């Protein structure tokens, strides 16, 4: 992948040339390499090459001509205005557009969308079923009743014990100690069995505790 990316970067001018098939050949070579991808780093290099190939493809497309005339963005915009019945090149029309309200650009985009939608396949609109039901607002809670309840609990001695303030530093220290402990276990395993890889799932999963499994995944990460 590194060699492929390097060759593409070095031959950038030749690839952008419209008469060259170098970009197609590079993409075919990348497809062959992708069949053997098995590691994350290789997949990242494949994505990096795709970004590079996309940029070159865009530059190559800009140089394509139709009827011996290059694509002109200004002329295309002018064509869009003429398509919806406007001509911004004329001075009178340009002054009129500069002082128009929001209805003109809205009408412009509606016309363009109507034409473009006939050439595109669109997915069906998704509607939430919750919209078919009328939600009923909950009854307001009176603060006075709450105060009476608290006062009654204080008289009966039923007030819950206040939670102590959480010590973030102690939690952080406990996390660091647990991470160091797990790292020590991994290092000990590799010293004892240097040629045997560790099964990630067997290492983190506690079959008797879901919460402990989640903690193990967190610490290992």
UniProtKB/TrEMBL annotation:
Alphabetical UniProt keywords: Chromosome, Cytoplasm, DNA damage, DNA recombination, DNA repair, Nucleus, Repressor, Telomere, Transcription, Transcription regulation
BP term (GO), one: DNA recombination
Keyword Nucleotide-binding annotated: no
Residues annotated as domain Nse4/EID protein Nse3/MAGE-binding: 46-96
Localization (cell): Chromosome, Telomere; Cytoplasm; Nucleus
A Pfam family recorded for this sequence: Nse4_C
Chief location of this protein within or outside the cell: nucleus
Boundaries of every Non-structural maintenance of chromosome element 4 C-terminal domain copy: 197-221
Cytoplasm as UniProt keyword: yes
A single Gene Ontology CC term: chromosome, telomeric region
Function noted in UniProt: Tissue-specific component of the SMC5-SMC6 complex, a complex involved in repair of DNA double-strand breaks by homologous recombination. The complex may promote sister chromatid homologous recombination by recruiting the SMC1-SMC3 cohesin complex to double-strand breaks. The complex is required for telomere maintenance via recombination and mediates sumoylation of shelterin complex (telosome) components.
Subunit text: Component of the SMC5-SMC6 complex.
Family: Belongs to the NSE4 family.
Name of the protein described by the UniProt record: Non-structural maintenance of chromosomes element 4
């Amino acid at each position: 992948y590194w060699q492929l990316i390097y060759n593409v970067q070095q031959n950038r001018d030749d690839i952008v040339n419209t008469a060259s098939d170098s970009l197609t050949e590079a993409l075919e070579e990348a497809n062959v390499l992708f069949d053997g991808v098995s590691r994350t780093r290789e997949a990242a290099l494949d994505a990096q090459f795709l970004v590079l190939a996309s940029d070159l493809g865009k530059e190559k497309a800009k140089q394509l001509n139709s009827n011996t005339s290059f694509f002109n963005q200004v002329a295309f915009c002018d064509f869009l205005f003429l398509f919806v019945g406007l001509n911004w090149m004329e001075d009178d029309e340009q002054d009129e557009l500069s002082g128009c309200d929001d209805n003109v650009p809205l009408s412009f985009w509606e016309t363009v969308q109507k034409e473009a939608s006939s050439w595109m396949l669109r997915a069906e609109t998704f509607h939430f079923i919750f919209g078919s039901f009328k939600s009923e607002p909950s009854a307001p809670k009176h603060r006075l009743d709450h105060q009476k309840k608290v006062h009654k609990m204080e008289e009966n001695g039923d007030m819950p014990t206040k939670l102590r303030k959480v010590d973030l530093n102690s939690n952080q220290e406990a996390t660091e100690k647990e991470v160091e402990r797990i790292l020590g276990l991994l290092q000990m395993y590799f010293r004892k069995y240097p040629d045997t890889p560790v099964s990630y799932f067997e290492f983190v999963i506690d079959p008797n505790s879901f919460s402990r499994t989640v903690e193990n995944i967190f610490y290992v990460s």
